[in-house]
Amino acid sequence: MRGLALVLFSVFVGLAFSARAQEVNGIYTEAATKDLGELSGNDSLKGIKFRGWLEGYYVWNQNDVRASVANANQGFSAIKARDLTIEGRAFDVHANRPTINLIELEVEKVPNRGRFGFKVDLAGGDTQKIIFDTIKAVSPDSLSNAEENIQHASLSYLAPIGTGLRVDVGKFVTHIGGETIESIKNRNFSHAFFYTYAIPFQDTGVRLNYAFNSKVYGELYILKGWNVTKDNNDGKTVGLSLGWTPSPKFSLYANYMGGPEQNNNDDNLRHLIDLQAIFLSSPTLQTMVNVDVATDENALGSGEDARWGGVALTLRKTIGDHFFPTVRAEYYNDQDGFTTGVGQRLWGTTFTADYRIGGAKSFTKVLIRPEIRYDRSSETFFSRKSDFRSERDQLTAGVGLVLYF
Fold it and tell me: What is the mean pLDDT of residues 30-45?
């Protein structure tokens, strides 16, 4: 049990030192997650944790992009979705209509020392379809049709080595980045440019997690590749992650992913470095800085490497036990147009005013997420009405709604 406790502590302490860093933390279930055995009274089911949510949104786009224009030009978009009338986003891409984007159930048994466990995330809705279609557009044979509704599926074993070596085998949400698929796990409702363009959605392979002590943990990944579950070449991708929490007020995370990612090519390597620093300047104010830098060898032709990267700053305030206003400022440089389709620099400012209905111990809660966002490009990247990519600016306002337990 000591090994398991150290692993959980080392992964979560950087996010959990502020109780309202975000509503739900990721990777390993936290103590607040429901226990199936305790709720059912069946001792054989104790230790099996579960939680779930329903997410929806309505967003107004000042540019009032026509769906017919968006659909006619879908081939130019890095994100694949019908009626994509909000550009530069990962999942909240449909303007001026209510959208149910995610329905999800997570079930997990965290392994005790010398024992096995598992984690399965079943999900449906527009978000899962966007992920599936976007990956298939790059590597048509990389996913099976059955995977659209399987966000995560892995088996785990906590080996009795030192403090405990956790081994996970299967399909995971990617370890890269300061955000993840579900908006409820993120500080803002809409995803940053990094998530939309700079990093993969998922990993498939083997993950080793080891807590060296209560302040430092490391992870090693051996993966099939960028987003794929069926490899698109014969090479393997390596991932690394290191977390350091020297005090309850500061955490630093360094992530790496590298390997051949081009279809049927084992020679050209893609390298991605992701750094995150999280600082609690007061008991009610959290700051996160996220930096990404990436290259892909010969991706633009013989001898021409693609490069992309940038920085994002997020400030999240806790006011009482229900209100969590958050500001994000970001800069993204895709000078070659490799990830966005246009050689450009992007700037974004987002304000999200999270308000939770229901106490921290309530079985079911509601998170209301009003948000205003302004994006600007150095080029004409955004569409307006019937004019495709005619504008440098995009202003949106809307609200996300999450029902969760």
Answer: 78
Tokens standing for 298? 């010969």
Residue 150's beta-bridge partner residues?
Answer: 122
How far is the CA of 318 from the CAs of 283, 323, 326, 329, 336, in angstroms? 8, 6, 9, 18, 39
3-state secondary structure the chain: CHHHHHHHHHHHHHHHCCCCCCCCCCCCCCCCCEEHHHHHCCHHHCCEEEEEEEEEEEEEECCCCCHHHHHHCHHHCCCCCCCCCCCCCCCCCCCCCCEEEEEEEEEEECCCECCEEEEEEEEECHHHHHHHHHHHHHCCCCCCHHHHHEEEEEEEEEECCCCCEEEEEEEEECCCCCCCCCHHHCCCCCCCHHHHHHCCCEEEEEEEEEECCCCEEEEEEEECCCCCCCCCCCCCEEEEEEEEEEECCEEEEEEEEEEECCCCCCCCEEEEEEEEEEEEEECCEEEEEEEEEEEECCCCCCCCCEEEEEEEEEEEECECCCEEEEEEEEEEEECCCCCCCCCEEEEEEEEEEEEEECCCCCCCEEEEEEEEEEEEECCCCEEECCEEEEECEEEEEEEEEEEEC
Residue 391 near residue 380, CB atoms below 8 Å: yes
| pLDDT confidence bin for 21, thresholds 50/70/90 | low
Report which DSSP code applies to 62.
T
Phi/psi at 141 (5° precision): -100, 10
Residue-wise pLDDT for 173-227, tens only, equals 999 999 999 998 999 999 999 999 999 999 999 999 999 999 999 999 999 989 9
Distance CA 368, CA 370 (A): 6
Query: pLDDT tens-digit profile of 69-111?
Result: 999 999 999 999 999 999 999 999 999 999 999 999 999 998 9
pTM of the model: 0.90
The reported pLDDT for the residue numbered 11 is 37
